[in-house]
Amino acid sequence: MKKSIWKTGDLFIWLTGVCLAFALFLVVALLLNLLVNGVSAFWPSPLHSFALEGGRAELGSVTMKEIIPNHSKTDADRFRTQIKRGNRDLDNSDYIWMDDDKIKSTTLELNAVALERREWGDLYGFLEAYKEDGKVIAEGFENTLSAIKSRLPGMNDLVAELDKVSKDDVGKINYYLEKNRIRLNRLKRDNADAGEIAEVEQAIAELNSEYKGLEKQLAELRSRMKGDVIVKTASGATTSVALEKIIKIHLPNTFGFFDKLGFFIDKFARFLYEDPRESNTEGGVFPAIFGTVMMVLLMSLIAAPLGVLAGFYLREYAKPGLFVSMIRIAVNNLAGVPSIVFGVFGVGFFIYFVGGGIDRFFYEDALPAPTFGTGGILWASLTMALLTVPVVIVSTEEGLASVSRGVREASLALGATKWETSWRVVLPAVMPSILTGLILAMARAAGEVAPLMITGVVKLAPSLPVDGFWPFLHLDRKFMHLGFHIFDVGFQSPNVDAARPMVFATTLLLIMIILCLNLSAIWLRKRLRRKLEISAV
């Protein structure tokens, strides 16, 4: 007699399979959405010239097309098109919607140019002339384009030198001025020797003199910045753009496939290594990449030994009983505590209590300005370590449970101590499980934002936690994080349309970084397993 589908269990197998397929479909759909929208943020789009009703004209790249919402149901579907027209400083908004039935004609003009600017985003239009000191150097499209291309590389080098002097050299002087100021205050407070005070005052005077020299150098560099590009927009208005404000100039309507590929690679590379601009909606995300990776690595260095030692104690040394059971329950429940609670704990304990104590004992001269008594990458890493350490503890305990009792007894029978057995026999065997827990911890730490927002992450960090000043690694400094960058650009930016490509690109980059970190740990785990298999043979 044939059993019903309920009794054979086939229905349950099909049900679990369907759920797995649906979950995989959702993951793949999410990744595809990020991939398509993230990549398109760097791929060049042609500039279309639109002639509209009423004699109005627009120039821009098509970004979206949709049915006009809330139109009359008795009418046929009407569509509208969104274009990026740039020119934010001229038209107040760089994105605009146009009803398709109001577009009279669309043309693709080969001489339409796109200027990538350091301020106000892209400028779209047609080249009119190039001027220096008010004199016209070149007129017409070809001559103006040639004049710009011949001068732009030199101008970008000049801007880079200006940035280096204003940030690196001036920053170095400001750093040592602050150090000497704090030292001078301490000497005066302690009634130190007059000669020592005079020595510090002399050092401050020399630094101020050096600062004035840099000011003259900056003024000389600025005086060499000449040139204005005259551009006519689609609406007929004429505007002037200083050459030092232009980063790149390109003609997207003339691009072939390899030109587009080169543009894509160049823009993606600059996205990785440049600093952000325009309230994080333009430029790159290098400080956020650096902060994210460094925070995850610091968190791993703290969480891994803490979690492994705790797991070893609970499984290998602690006597079973009510107390140990309660600790295990508490560890398991920690994984369900909202992450913002860890952030609040980090602020109260690490920043105010520990950091405030460090400031009072070691940085009293700098007070009331806090050094460690404010958010920083060290406190953020410690908070994230507390957040993720239960995962490492549980995975370590589960790994230890899988090591057979005979392995331990054989080691002890050969004369090894319990410490030698744990260190040389059990730990290598359980290392793959530890790395599995660490992989999960790293993935969660890289994606969490809420605890970081109150323990050290900022919208724009003026300097990286690592630089050339002693002690080179500055754990007290605030940092940028890709997760917070996504939140800030996506939900805090006043220009939502301009921020959308950056949100997709940054999200895709964050997932790629998490994937790379996880793949590194998986590769290490695989090597350890292979090594253990060989040693067992």
Observed structural traits:
537 residues, alpha+beta, 61% helix, 2 domains, 13 strands, flat, six-stranded antiparallel sheet, 15 helices, MetI-like fold, five-stranded antiparallel sheet
Structural features, described:
Helices cover 61% and strands 14% of the residues. Helix 7 (286-317) runs antiparallel to helix 12 (418-447) and helix 11 (405-413) packs antiparallel against helix 12. The radius of gyration is 31 Å and the shape is flat. With 537 residues, it is an alpha+beta fold. The chain is built from 15 helices and 13 strands. The longest helix is centred in the first third of the chain and has 49 residues, at 141-189. It has 2 domains: 45-254, no CATH class; 290-476, Orthogonal Bundle (MetI-like fold). The strands form 3 sheets. Strands 6, 7, 8, 9, 10 and 11 form a 6-stranded antiparallel beta sheet that branches. It has a 5-stranded antiparallel beta sheet with strand order 4-3-2-1-5, with no helix packed on it.
Summarize the structure.
The protein contains 15 helices and 13 strands.
Ordered list of secondary-structure elements with their pairings:
Layout: H1 5-8, H2 10-40, E1 48-52, E2 57-67, E3 79-84, H3 88-91, E4 95-99, E5 103-107, E6 112-117, E7 122-132, E8 135-139, H4 141-189, H5 194-223, E9 228-232, E10 238-242, E11 246-250, H6 257-273, E12 276-277, E13 282-283, H7 286-317, H8 322-334, H9 339-362, H10 377-402, H11 405-413, H12 418-447, H13 450-453, H14 482-492, H15 496-536
Antiparallel strand pairs: 1-2, 1-5, 2-3, 3-4, 6-7, 6-11, 7-8, 7-9, 9-10, 12-13
